[in-house]
Specification:
354 residues; UCP012608; 11-stranded mixed sheet; 20% strand; Rossmann fold
Length: 354
């Protein structure tokens, strides 16, 4: 049994640690965290959250979510992603008052939500291997497992600023940059992906304003560019009718691959989802793809941390926390595992090779 009185000092420490870690990277949340560490009434609100979710970012995302619906509030003037001019008043005072005045709404969010990321710049992870696969066996059909709002299914529909390599792509309304080191085969055009689907146990519907607002709320307000990119990606996902179906990685991937195979060479993509599965479920997922790959030609692009997911092909014996991109292919039943690159957690740079 965990008693709440034992949790509060630990919680205060979490906020203090957060404040120290993000002093320069996220100055607004760092200030809030330093203050909240000493605000017992605010810490008390967090008692409704599941123990694993009693983390500073859940409190900040919940307040951000409410603020995105009250943009004229004084506090909003301190959020760089909302305000154009710096506000008056002490941001930390305003934050504490804002949260306590909305204690019921805050508790509702804290009890029921968890932080969510769906990062459009991760499309960089799929661009290079899919260009290789397109040249080998295209056109392609993507099954994105753990797709969240499906934003990474947009990878064939956006533009890329490859550094070096220049601009490629179809849509100038959303261009993502990728700083490249090493010597990847630089694509001259985006791969031909005829069909895609997303699979997620908790899919986010980009057409649902409430769900979209939560996704936006999980972006840190100092990261203005990231916030704007997310909004552009959501508009594009709406335009292209991106859909994510409710389903489980292990139980539903085989039928998804069968559907994909009717449209092109099936490519399964997983990015920062395998760490959500228990080790035995990760093994079951690998077994399932091995089984499917023994019956038809299949490819799997893995963008995960070997440290978090040692059961995946190419990860055993590695304690790298960094994201590694690995390409697994099954051709005529023969499996091949190729480590391609290491990369920034949101895809801003890629280092090709080992
Ligand atoms: C951190 S998000 C990553 C989203 C996206 N792949 C990206 O890279 O931006 C992880 C996603 O995996 C989903 N997920 C967790 N367990 C899953 C499972 N067993 N099957 C399918 N999706 C799962 C979560 O709901 C969440 O949307």
């Amino acid at each position: 049994m965990i008693y709440y009185r034992d949790v509060v000092p630990d919680l205060a420490k979490r906020f203090n640690d957060f404040a120290q870690s993000f002093d320069t990277g996220a100055p607004l949340y760092s200030q809030f965290a330093r203050r909240v560490a000493n605000e017992r009434t605010v810490l008390d609100l967090m008692s409704v959250a599941p123990v694993s979710q009693r983390i500073p970012v859940l409190l900040f995302a919940s307040a951000h979510y409410l603020l995105l619906d009250e943009r004229s509030h004084e506090l909003a003037q301190h959020y760089p992603n909302i305000a154009h001019e710096k506000g008056s008043g002490v941001a930390t005072d305003l934050f504490v008052a804002f949260v306590l005045e909305r204690a019921d709404a805050m508790k509702e969010l804290l009890a029921n939500r968890s932080t969510q990321t769906n990062e459009i710049s991760r499309c960089n992870w799929f661009l290079f291997p899919c260009a290789m696969l397109d040249a080998e066996l295209g056109p392609l059909a993507q099954v994105d497992v753990g797709s969240s709002a499906g934003l990474n299914q947009l990878f064939p529909k956006i533009s890329y600023d490859l550094r070096p390599g220049g601009l490629i792509g179809n849509n100038t309304s959303l261009t993502i940059a990728c700083n490249i080191t090493g010597e990847p085969p630089i694509p001259r055009q985006v791969p031909n992906v005829k069909w895609s689907m997303g699979l997620d146990t908790k899919p986010i519907d980009v057409r649902n304003d409430v769900e979209v607002r939560w996704l936006e709320a999980c972006v840190w307000p100092d990261q203005v560019e990231r916030f704007e990119r997310l909004q552009q990606a959501i508009s594009l996902a709406r335009l292209h009718n991106i859909e994510v179906e409710r389903g489980d990685a292990v139980d539903d991937v085989a039928q998804a691959v069968d559907r994909a195979a009717q449209h092109g060479h099936p490519v399964v993509t997983t990015s920062w989802v395998m760490n959500y599965l228990a080790p035995d479920r990760r093994i079951a997922f690998v077994d399932e793809l091995n089984r499917v790959g023994s019956e038809l030609d299949l490819s799997w692009i893995i963008a995960e941390s070997p440290y978090e997911t040692p059961e995946l092909p190419g990860h055993s014996g590695s304690d790298e926390i960094i994201t590694v991109i690995t390409l697994v292919t099954w051709r005529k039943g023969q499996r091949n595992v190729q480590r391609l690159a290491t990369t920034h957690p949101h895809g801003h740079w890629i280092h090709w090779g080992n």
